[in-house]
Amino acid sequence: MASVMPRSHGGDGAEDPPPPSGFGRGQHMEDRNCRSQEKKRGKAKNKGLTQAIALNKGPVSLSFDTEVTYSPIGTPNDWFTREVGSYMFGHFAFDKSSYNYVSDAEKNAMDWRFNFTEIEKHPKCRQLMDGLNAVYMKHYRSRKAKAKEEFLANEGETDVARARANIPVGMSEENWNKTVAYFLMKEHKDRSCANKSNHQKQLYTNRGGSSTYSSFCFKKDKTRLEAFKNGHTLKDGRFATELEEQKYFEPRSEPNIEDEFGEGSLSQVNEVQVFEKVFGARREHYIGMGRKPSLSRFTAPSCVGPHEKEQTPPALTEDFLDGLFKSESFLERLSKFMNSKKASKNGNEDNMDED
Q1: pTM as predicted
Q2: What's the pLDDT score for residue 11?
Q3: Is the pLDDT confidence value at 221 over 50?
Q4: HSE of 296 in the Cβ direction (CA atoms, 13 Å)?
Q5: Number of domains in the chain
Q6: How buried is residue 134: exposed, middle or buried, by Cβ count under 10 Å (0-12/13-18/19+)?
Q7: I need a labelling partner for 187 at 20 to 30 A (CA). Which of 154, 156, 244, 258 fits?
Q8: Is residue 354 part of a domain?
Q9: pLDDT single digits (tens) 40-60
Q10: Are residues 87 and 142 in the same domain?
């Protein structure tokens, strides 16, 4: 904002611009308006969530992709992800390699305006909670990356004192000092270098903005193949690379493709198989579709939500294991998992959660 000394309040006004005529605005008003426009998107989301809570007379329900990824989707997910990112930047120190290592006390302190009770009672609660945890992990990474940008913009290791003195807006001094100390650790530097090397090997970069493949399908009523196209084309509609264009058209040559990718299709298993055949398998991700649900989908439907006490996990008895290995779906999932683990040793599939 421009430095403007107001008239008749201790300043002589010698450097002030002429007063605007009529209903004009001074330079300081223009600066303030520019700054407010930068935050317009976030404010709109906050306003939308507040209105939804008022209309609902209580917490807002989250919708999920229960066919493939079990990720939250739609406008409520937009509100949720912004709340997650905003809260983390204001309350967390980014001194862990992953959100998984953040203390339970910090995680449980997050007070959302969403209906978690509804999720905890859902028959697929465990899968849905895995989907939410993926959101937490993603935004912990992105907020840590934002903090790293601030660190490097203020000379980073070259001038640590300056970096510490320039606390990012929204972070506390204590959390910023912890974050800076972590950025200086050898552990972080090594993992960061390894992760950058992995990123350089990526063949498919999603350019679809902050919306996930699943959320795009839900919002736009599009097929997953069209969601892939949206995420891998430039503003002028051209594919970003020849490989991505080739991979977009390749699934259409698969048998029964009209059934698998047709509007309203329920053949989700076949759809996943086609994507994995075309793009290859990854350990924790369906390339072109989104995250893979964990093996917990084959466990009992009991679920520990954020408002419940931790329950004792089932004992790994012989009867329990025999039951698992009698499940064809479990064996199929286990086979895919083991194959992808072998493939990941030769590729770049491990996300080490570092920037």
Answers
A1: 0.67
A2: 37
A3: yes
A4: 19
A5: 2
A6: buried
A7: 154
A8: no
A9: 444 555 788 889 889 988 899
A10: yes
Q: Which residue has the higher pLDDT, 283 or 77?
A: 77
pLDDT of res. 22 = 41
- 148 in the same domain as 238: no
Written as six digits, the tokens of 190 are: 């090594």
Kindly state whether residues 194 and 239 are assigned to the same domain.
no
* Mean pLDDT, residues 277-303 taken together: 67
**Rounded to an integer, what distance in angstroms lies between the CA atom of residue 122 and that of residue 297?**
13
Residue carrying the six token digits 């064996």: 331
Instruction: Give the CA dihedral 249, 250, 252, 254, nearest 10 degrees.
Output: 180
- Return d(Cα 232, Cα 289) in angstroms, integer: 12
HEC string for 233-263: ECCCCCECCHHHHHHHHHHHHCCCHHHHHCC
Strand partners, 64: 72
Neighbours of 257 (CB within 10 A): 15
Boundary residue ending a domain (261, 277, 296): 296
The answer on 145 and 81 residing in a single domain is yes
Query: Does residue 278 share a domain with residue 248?
Result: yes
